[in-house]
Amino acid sequence: SKVAGIERYGFLILIVLLASRIARQAKNAEEGVEVVRGQTDELGGIARINDSGVRILHAARSLRKVAVGK
Rounded to the nearest 5 degrees, what angle is found at the Cα of 28, between the Cα atoms of 24 and 32? Predict the structure, then answer.
């Protein structure tokens, strides 16, 4: 019947609209991931900075021990 045909088209339109929405959200998510990736790439030297900080801390402790005499 015509009503059943119209309902099928309604479901088809709904599926296409939802697919379009999902595709748009996926694109936005992908762009967001790229932004985060770009921000975290800048932290590539963080391990070296941390190592330097640890060495400075150890040196400061050693100097304190020498100064205090312990």
Answer: 170
CB count within 10 Å of CB 30 equals 9
- Dump the DSSP string for 10-56: HHHHHHHHHHHHHHHHHHHHHHHHHHHHHHHHTTTTHHHHHHHHHHH
Give per-residue pLDDT as tens, 5-58. Answer: 778 888 889 899 999 899 989 999 989 888 888 877 767 777 788 889 899 888
Alpha-carbon gap, residue 34 to 48, rounded angstroms: 24
Residue 69 has what pLDDT?
73
Q: Which two tokens stand for residue 47?
A: 């391990």
Cα–Cα distance for residue pair 35/47, rounded to 1 Å: 22
